[in-house]
Amino acid sequence: MRADVGDRVHIHSRAVGIEERQGEITEVHGQNGEPPYLVKFSDGHEGLLYPGPDCTIERRAAEER
């Protein structure tokens, strides 16, 4: 998985009753865009994320970079 600052993270629900989460990558700590990522989630919480198979990265548009 590869991402850049400003890309969006979407963590899909793995089970009934677990909410999906979305956030923006504010820092990339791995080399060449690899995890871990510091993410600011839509609820205001920030955390270090090691994405799993239930996670997708939505790349931001090239003109925004």
List the helices and strands and how they pair.
Blueprint: E1 8-11, E2 21-28, E3 37-41, E4 46-49, E5 55-58
Antiparallel strand pairs: 1-2, 1-5, 2-3, 3-4
Through-space gap between termini: 19 Å
| Helix and strand run | EEEEE
Beta-strand portion reads 35-45%
Total of domains: 1
The residue ranges in which pLDDT falls below 50 over 5 or more consecutive positions are none
Radius of gyration: 12 Å
Helix-and-strand structural type: mainly beta
Number of distinct helices:
0
Main β-sheet, spatial strand arrangement: 4-3-2-1-5
Shape: globular
Strands, count = 5
How helix-rich are the residues, as a percent range? under 10%
How would you characterize the largest beta sheet?
A: 5 strands, antiparallel
Mean residue pLDDT? 91
List keywords for this structure.
single chain, 65 residues, mainly beta, 5-stranded antiparallel sheet
Account of the 3D structure:
This protein is mainly beta and 65 residues long. It has one domain (8-64). The protein is built from no helices and 5 strands. It has strands at 8-11, 21-28, 37-41, 46-49, 55-58. The protein has a 5-stranded antiparallel sheet with strand order 4-3-2-1-5, with no helix packed on it. The chain starts with 7 loop residues before the first strand and ends in a 7-residue tail after the last strand. The relative contact order is 0.34. It comes from Kitasatospora acidiphila. This is DUF1918 domain-containing protein. Residues 1-57 form the DUF1918 domain.
